[in-house]
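re the bet — no i am not wrong, look at it urself. input seq straight from the record:
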Amino acid sequence: MMETERKSFWKSGHTPTLFSSFLYFDMSFMVWVMIGPLAVIIAADYPMDPLQKAQLVALPILGGSILRLVLGALTDYIGPKLTGQIGMLATLVPLVIGWKFVHSLDQLYVVALLLGVAGASFAAALPLAGQWYPKEHQGLAMGIAGAGNSGTVLSTLFANRIAQHFGSWEVVFGLAIIPIAIVFIIFTIFARNSPHRPAPKKLSHYASVLRQGDAWVFCMFYAVTFGGFVGLSNYLTIFFNAQYGLSAVRAADFTTLCVIAGSFFRPLGGYLSDRFGGIRMLTILFCGAGVMLALVASMPPLVAVVSILFAGMMCLGAGNGAVFQLVPQRFASELGLMTGIVGAAGGLGGFALPMLLGKLYQTTGSYTPGFICLSGIVLLALGLLVFMHLRWRTTWAAAGGVAAAAPVTAMSSRMES
């Protein structure tokens, strides 16, 4: 598109808000997945079987899934900036409890569930950024804000090292309060609500959206892409420790390599979806992720499995950007609402993944069945995408209204080319 026909990306929105959203999501994501890399060290204090370990790392994802609906509603009614501020203050609660007041595994489960408020940041951070940008730049804007899932890298790289240095995993919770406080200040100063923010939705609007089949389809896709990314991010340290006998720090380091791929390819997935179409990109990425997870099921040597998981996580991370390039095209006026709903579905997918791997490993003594199941789920999502692509050629054009009609020409040309 010619420069005279549309503004450049950096002139089309509000850059301070975009990067404030990124920082908020980044630090929140760091806190949200913190228990994942720490699980091996925590197990030394509270011995757990494979299913209990899976439950521990899955509970923050479940909490995030539930609370995203709450923050999604708050985003609509009080605005994404105030919602984000409330979210960061609420995140301090499980951090303080985990730092000073945990004395049993049951108490730790409660802390893990409460950490979900950090994962719920998704429902405020993405609308805050996305509402500033026009449709042609939604993929990149949402990708940059969503790249805050790179906070996972901070947890996998430093959490176990800090725990070993201080001789306590609890101190990691206490130190995490510092970056949350700093980002709260930055966010408060620089973030701004978009003047084009849609009016608050009534409860009937939620029911109306959920009656639309496309909403459920996007939920399924995001349960696979984001659920796959965050579920593996939380579980891979346990996997590397159990399958390859790596120490807690070494297992988390290899997890970091895999997480980097998913984190930093999310903006690229959004950008390429802007250029070539989200449906086309998602088709390619589902294929890649399905193949990679099938290869992991063979339990190859460590170097090979890390390379395969790197490629698989890259596909899942980029797939997150592709899904959220499509969501605003179909549900532009319900973006805050849909972000919460779709994000919640992603969290449920992330909760199910560790539970599936942990249960099958406890039952069979092998991770092969679990990864075969994961590969099959991704390929089923690919089949659904192909089917929906054929329907969307006509249904999006016929849906009417601003949310569906405005992007039809661009979307149709991308899908048909």
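see?? Confidence is low (pLDDT under 50) at residues 1-6, 400-417. told u. also The CA atoms of residues 292 and 390 lie 26 Å apart. so pay up
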